[in-house]
Amino acid sequence: LDNTIFVFTSDNGPEGSGPVDPLSGSNSLMTANMGYSTDYETLGLKGSFSSIGPGFTSAAASPLAFYKFYTGEGGLRVPLIVSGQPLGNIPKQTDAFAWATDIAATILALANVALPEARYGGRPVLPMTGRDLTPLVKGTIDRVYGENDAIGYELTGQGALFRGDFKLVRNLPPLGDGQWRLFNIVQDPGETLDLSSQDPGRLQAMLAAYEVFEVENQVQPLPAGYTRSTQLLVNLLRDRLGPAVLLGLLTLLVLLPFGVYVRMKRKR
Questions:
Q1: Which of 19, 73, 220, 229 is 20 to 30 Å from 123 by CA-CA measure?
Q2: Residue 205 burial (CB < 10 Å; 0-12/13-18/19+)?
Q3: Mean pLDDT of all residues in the chain?
């Protein structure tokens, strides 16, 4: 173990995409049509499909705001543990900001592997954007990102930009309202106090930085009226229930003339 380094982190945010009442008749029927079971007796076994629902998901993320698929801290903030003899194995804890892309750069640095150049294996490669966290882990520096370093993030229209102690965040319906808000996530990790009106200059500067992030990363605008829940339903009907719905429509078309004939005959 003298040359072994352990890296542990977590998936981001508890899952809240399940229905409010997963055991209701309509939800159970839909789940059964997809070949899954919500029965308590089969919980965790093959074919089981269970979720804690949005309510308990919010509780699981508390005191942070929102959960998975949203850009509140409840949907993004996770622990990161790096340990091992090469690091001195002395317990340290820091609240300094780090990003998922930093992990690869850190592992390469700890393994004394040089970052890839413009080409690797005879093919062009994009440059790595992450930063080496080794000095932070060893305690020789307090942070790897400066006050003016901006880190942007976007997922289905939900947006966030981190800069120093501050975070710009936008969450879309049904939980959000699509408005940009500004928080000091060091003093207020629960994102309870919107600083937009108190610090409009910082708000505008971070909005401009987010626009740069969108251009550099080719973030595509969402169509008008887009909501994640609606799109998930459309995908479900098309990909999973499409054949069943089509069969039902064909059956209806076949039986409809017969029904009309019977009704007209009765009127005579």
A1: 220
A2: middle
A3: 87
Say whether pTM exceeds 0.85.
Answer: no
Phi and psi, residue 138, nearest 5°:
-80, -10
> Which among 245, 227, 204, 191 has a CA at the least distance from the CA of 69?
227
Per-residue pLDDT at 263 exceeds 80:
no
Q: What is the spatial order of strands in the sheet that 158-163 belongs to?
A: 150-155, 158-163, 166-170, 180-184
List beta partners, residue 7: 82
The span from the CA of 137 to the CA of 260, in Å, is 76
For the chain, the residue count is 268
**In degrees to the nearest 10, what's the CA dihedral of 114, 118, 119, 123?**
140
Rounded to whole angstroms, the Cα distance separating 52 from 14 reads 9
Residue ranges per structural domain of the chain:
236-267
Whether the per-residue pLDDT at 25 is higher than 70: the answer is no
Contacts 24+ apart (CB under 8 A), 157-161: 157/222, 157/226, 157/228, 158/69, 158/70, 158/71, 159/71, 159/210, 160/71, 160/76, 161/206, 161/209, 161/210, 161/213
Return d(Cα 180, Cα 160) in angstroms, integer. 9
Q: Are 191 and 183 in contact (CB under 8 A)?
A: yes
